[in-house]
Amino acid sequence: MLTYLSIGLGLVSLIAFMAKCNKQRSVGGVFIKNIASLFFLFTTATAIYYNQDFWKYGVLILIGGVFGMLGDIYLDQKWVYPQHNDNYLNAGFISFGVGHFFYIGAIFLHMGFGLKDFLVPVIVGIVVAAFTLITEKPTKCHFGKFKAIVTVYCLVIGMMTGTALWAMIQTGFSVQYIVFVVAAALFLLSDIILSSMYFGTKNTPFNFVINHTSYYFAQFLIAFTVFLIK
């Protein structure tokens, strides 16, 4: 199946990228990374083809993935153009945040959620944002002038996680939403590691691998929910 082939090729591209850029970033490595991102978009597109009854859910997931890819591209530019670090970092946060809103929208559309269903996502979002701020010093992260946008982003990704959790509970722990919750957890792990790399002192090869592995697994799992959704 094309969906499984796309996932496999995406993971091969990811391994090639990490092998090339684990010690030093390069333009060639970033190109390979973008190919890996294209594969999670292609995975979503093929899943829409095979599961056309839920194309609206799939299209929202696809758009969210596009914003995720854009966010990744922006963050990579901060290494290429360090003089514009602030602009690219802010653009990356905004793009990923918008992508998470599309993921939230996909779940709300599929589940037929209303305003009352925002309660759990908002609570989880507030908890994630508060936890991030409380642990800033213990984790030796220094958000500085980025504290506001980091807080808003944490609220949004927490809401995405909370939405997936609420959907999983409401569907009696359905496979597609178990997968979505796992993906959300991997996203959180990726962002925790990324924070330690960008705002702390842990920009190590090990963290580089964990950050990218958890991020891409998250994106591919979310794309695969389009194939699983019922």
What does this structure look like?
This protein has one domain. It contains eight helices and no strands. The model has no long low-confidence stretch (mean pLDDT 91).
SSE inventory with pairings:
Blueprint: H1 2-21, H2 27-50, H3 55-80, H4 85-111, H5 119-134, H6 147-170, H7 175-198, H8 205-228
Q: Characteristics of this structure?
A:
globular; 8 helices; mainly alpha
Oligomer: single chain
Largest sheet, if any? none
Count the DSSP helices.
Answer: 8
- Tally the structural domains: 1
Structural class: mainly alpha
Q: What radius of gyration results from the CA coordinates?
A: 17 Å
Please tell me what the overall shape is. globular
Strand content: under 5%
Number of strands: 0
> What is the element string, with H for helices and E for strands?
HHHHHHHH
Tell me roughly what share of residues is in helical segments: over 70%
Compute the separation of the termini in Å. 19 Å
Q: Which segments are poorly predicted (pLDDT under 50) over 5 or more consecutive residues? A: none
Mean pLDDT: 91
